Amino acid sequence: MAEIDDYSARVLDVVDAIPPGQVMSYGDIAEYLGRYGPRRVGKVMSTHGGAVPWWRVIHSDGSMVPGHERAALRQYREEGTPLRTSADGSSFRVDMRQARWRGLEAPRPGEPGAVDNRPGDRIPDDFPLPEPGPRD
């Protein structure tokens, strides 16, 4: 089996972290990782996605890749993923307003797990600081 490159591994890690009942689009994942675009994420998923909950990665309009709708629908129902059906009931989409996962965002002040930093608090030694640039 071929070795997985760093970007592919990061994509698969994000997909693995999406909670049951929630989804991300290909573009959401690319934006979250800050590199490449939705097509590159799609390539990673088509090559290596069988090892992760692939049904949680969809198009930005809530639709699935053709040919995988039945298997995905089973998973969505099992996980309680919010769905929208067409007017005639013949097709479905994931309700992106309700189901979209924004990733591992830091909790906002006042939320459980939030850090209450105040002026003068020490910045950790491993805090990523921007590289110094040329001065005007």
**CATH topology title of the domain at 6-99:** Arc Repressor Mutant, subunit A
What is the CATH superfamily of the domain at 6-99? Winged helix-like DNA-binding domain superfamily/Winged helix DNA-binding domain
Bin the strand percentage: 5-15%
Structural class of the helices, strands and pairings?
mainly alpha
Radius of gyration: 19 Å
Please give the CATH architecture of the domain at 6-99: Orthogonal Bundle
How many individual β-strands?
4
In DSSP terms (H or I, runs of 4 or more residues), the helix count works out at 5
Unreliably modeled segments: none
Which class of the domain at 6-99 in CATH terms?
Mainly Alpha
- Order the strands across the largest sheet as they lie in space: 1-2
Question: How would you describe the shape?
Answer: globular
Specify the biggest β-sheet.
Answer: 2 strands, parallel
**What order do the helices and strands follow?**
HEHHEHEEH
What share of residues is helical? 25-40%
How many angstroms does the end-to-end distance come to?
Answer: 51 Å
Mean pLDDT: 83
Describe the structure.
Helix content is 34%, strand content 7%. It is built from five helices and four strands. The chain has helices at residues 6-17, 26-33, 38-48, 69-79, 96-99; strands at residues 24-25, 57-58, 83-85, 92-94. The strands form two sheets. Strands 1-2 form a two-stranded parallel sheet. Strands 3-4 form a two-stranded antiparallel sheet. Helix 2 (26-33) crosses helix 3 (38-48). It starts with 5 loop residues before the first helix and ends in a 37-residue tail after the last helix.
